[in-house]
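Z., the sequence and structure:
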Amino acid sequence: MTRAYIALGSNLGVPEDHLSGALDAIDGLPDTTLEQTSRWYRTAPIGGPPDQPDFLNAVCQIDTRLAPYDLLHALQRIEQDFGRVRLERWGPRTLDLDIILYGDRIQNDPELTLPHPRAQERAFVLVPLADLDPTAAIQGKPVTDWFSKVADQAITPIIA
């Protein structure tokens, strides 16, 4: 089994329902176990159109036997099941699922880059990932070491 971390985000429709449903769908993937989920956070969009709503974000930890591309394609199917349409980069979406870390795998190709190429630049990834494992490393540094780079990004925990 490989430990992987998946970032979840939604800012269209009912984001709470989309994240809950996505977590159920991830837990239902073959040869995959959902181990834990971070707190949920409200965050302002980064990039994209200026008038889009805030996002609801989280990170989940899974253990999986799925190969990286199989996991990526399964996550893309889940996004489609929740009505994801890719119209513009960083635009609003019903559901966004990104593989942040897949074990200690490092790769860079047009379809899948691991670790996620902008993870260390996004508070909505770093903070919930630190909830789960503050020692998880991105580019050889613990996630908490990147916090100073994202200190200007608003992120608010949601109290359930």
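The CA atoms of residues 107 and 113 lie 5 Å apart. The chain has one domain: 2-157.

Let me know what you think.
H.
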